[in-house]
Amino acid sequence: MSLIKGETGEWEIVLGLEVHAQVISDAKLFSGAPTTFGADPNTQVSLVDAAMPGMLPVINERCVEQAIRTGLGLNAKINLRSIFDRKNYFYQDLPQGYQISQYKDPIVGEGAVEIDLPDGKTRTIGIERLHLEQDAGKSLHDQHPSQTYVDLNRSGVALMEIVSKPDMRSADEAAAYLAKLRSIVRYLGTCDGNMDEGSMRCDVNVSVRRPGGELGTRCEIKNVNSIRFVKQAIEYEARRQIEVIESGGTIKQETRNFDSGRGETRSSRSKEDAQDYRYFPDPDLLPLIFTQEYVDQIRATLPELPDARKNRYIKDYGLSPYDAGVLTAEKETAEFFEAVAKGRDAKQAANLVTGDFFAMLKRRSATVETSPISAANLGKLLDLQADGTISGRIAKDLFVAMEETGKDPAVLVEERGLKQVTDTGAIEAAIKAVIDANPGQVAAYKAKPTMFGWFVGQVMKSTGGKANPKVVNELLKKVLDA
Amino acid sequence: MSLDKDTVARIARLARLKVPDEELAPLAGELSGIFAWIEQLNEVDTKNVEPMSSVSDVTLPMRADKVTDGGVAAKVLANAPGGAVYIDPSDRNAGGFFTVPKVVE
């Protein structure tokens, strides 16, 4: 728990998150129109999505399955019976005049997520619920001086709203929660987690109180679309609330927007009485009912999730919790690492992947999928080192050559003559040359044995780094100490 | 339950219905009458009865996750109440926007 110091003492932040995650499906929640991102305006709209009179919603089976899958991934209670309600409000990008959502009886109930904090500790954050609902369309305000343009392509796309309990106490915890949620849905294949394209958006509820005291009044910051902005928004909003209270004011429960350019939150003036959504069960839809067997069938197809994978890396591979966390946060990274580590020294593989390999990806702004070095080739690099074909120093050069050419390291070793020299005759000759050229250093060595490293360096240099360091050490010792 | 004038005005605003001031009081009276009539149902003991969400004994029909619709921008935009702008006026299915008076947040 991290406290914030105000003028009149310490304050504790209380945070709850509502995350909207777009369900991965081909068609929309209640219509057969496609969900792909970036199509021309209103070309992915059916008459159901446009709310033409007489159109009826028919639910997409896969969206139901994806919601259950996500619920299972959040260790949550799956409700075998849930209800769709109408949430009524007026807005130009909501042609029905209501959003089909779930209110009293959501498809998923309480669950829990374990978050990884920067200091290596973990904490459990409660999940309140997950429900299915329709996305709205998109308004464009900057296309015309006196008109707003509306594109309904997103209208009716399935969203999962995942509501946490007010269990988080700092911006770091909120960021860790969002990162873990994103990781879980990506492992599950239920949401692509792409915050840039809006497939994952977040509303943050912020309040402050005296440590352990009564809960304060909360403000809701709407539609924050990156983990970094979530942290910024929380830090700003908590400070603002503390200042208001300490100067004798009170916090008004309200909706606020985050201005990422200025790094501040502002009251959204509009929709003062929009809070009255007048929910009622949608008469167009029957209750959503399925069996426990159906849920169990889905459970049987769940992949290994990030926490389980992380624990396996710690236990089976002997990796540190930090390295295990970094390697398992993204499914693609974990799969890449496992391909490199398979049948090899896992710790060495982890060092190479989290070290030189990640640095290379960062430098090139590449991902595991677009990396010029494949997992198979990275593994071969480790093999070449392990069997003594190349020295550690050559391995560094070879890595750079692999990055530039994308070639198999064994081929590069042949092409460029990088094979380690273990032939004692050749190494002895190199040693003799170094000693003959440096009689002064040899004399100095007798008085100061720490000079030994200098000779090793010279021999390595004269062999272009290809001499086997172990053999050099042994032979050099013999000659110098003779 | 009886409704007062203010409540009726609020409900009307939420539903975007324009009700002149002088009609609020009579409307409140009528709506209160309807409520009183419905409230007779409270006399029935429903303590152990599940709320009925449908009269038909069928389960929610589901659809396979197949794209079967869309690509009908011309039809979708044909009835745009405030008009539409098309990307390519000679091919209305190529897409376009609904237009509404500017909504400033």
TrEMBL record, chain A:
Spans annotated as Disordered: 253-274
Its job: Allows the formation of correctly charged Asn-tRNA(Asn) or Gln-tRNA(Gln) through the transamidation of misacylated Asp-tRNA(Asn) or Glu-tRNA(Gln) in organisms which lack either or both of asparaginyl-tRNA or glutaminyl-tRNA synthetases. The reaction takes place in the presence of glutamine and ATP through an activated phospho-Asp-tRNA(Asn) or phospho-Glu-tRNA(Gln).
Matching SMART domains: GatB_Yqey (SM00845)
Oligomeric and partner information: Heterotrimer of A, B and C subunits.
Pfam families associated with the record: GatB_N (PF02934), GatB_Yqey (PF02637)
Domain Asn/Gln amidotransferase: 335-480
InterPro entries: Asn/Gln-tRNA_amidoTrfase_suB/E, Asn/Gln-tRNA_Trfase_suB/E_cat, Asn/Gln_amidotransferase, Asn/Gln_tRNA_amidoTrase-B-like, GatB, GatB_C_1, GatB_Yqey_C_2, Gln-tRNA_amidoTrfase_suB_CS
Key words of the record: ATP-binding, Ligase, Nucleotide-binding, Protein biosynthesis
Similarity comment: Belongs to the GatB/GatE family. GatB subfamily.
Record gene name: gatB
Stretch forming the signal peptide: none
Protein name: Aspartyl/glutamyl-tRNA(Asn/Gln) amidotransferase subunit B
Reaction(s) catalysed (UniProt annotation): L-aspartyl-tRNA(Asn) + L-glutamine + ATP + H2O = L-asparaginyl-tRNA(Asn) + L-glutamate + ADP + phosphate + 2 H(+); L-glutamyl-tRNA(Gln) + L-glutamine + ATP + H2O = L-glutaminyl-tRNA(Gln) + L-glutamate + ADP + phosphate + H(+)
The protein's Enzyme Commission number: 6.3.5.-
Domain of life assignment: Bacteria
TrEMBL record, chain B:
Keyword Nucleotide-binding among UniProt keywords: yes
Superkingdom of this protein's organism: Bacteria
Enzyme Commission number, as recorded: 6.3.5.-
Transmembrane segments annotated in the record for this chain: none
Enzyme class per UniProt: ligase
Catalytic activity: L-glutamyl-tRNA(Gln) + L-glutamine + ATP + H2O = L-glutaminyl-tRNA(Gln) + L-glutamate + ADP + phosphate + H(+); L-aspartyl-tRNA(Asn) + L-glutamine + ATP + H2O = L-asparaginyl-tRNA(Asn) + L-glutamate + ADP + phosphate + 2 H(+)
Keywords: ATP-binding, Ligase, Nucleotide-binding, Protein biosynthesis
Cross-referenced PANTHER family: GLUTAMYL-TRNA(GLN) AMIDOTRANSFERASE SUBUNIT C, MITOCHONDRIAL (PTHR15004)
Similarity section: Belongs to the GatC family.
Subunit structure: Heterotrimer of A, B and C subunits.
Function: Allows the formation of correctly charged Asn-tRNA(Asn) or Gln-tRNA(Gln) through the transamidation of misacylated Asp-tRNA(Asn) or Glu-tRNA(Gln) in organisms which lack either or both of asparaginyl-tRNA or glutaminyl-tRNA synthetases. The reaction takes place in the presence of glutamine and ATP through an activated phospho-Asp-tRNA(Asn) or phospho-Glu-tRNA(Gln).
Protein name, as recorded: Aspartyl/glutamyl-tRNA(Asn/Gln) amidotransferase subunit C
Gene that this sequence comes from: gatC
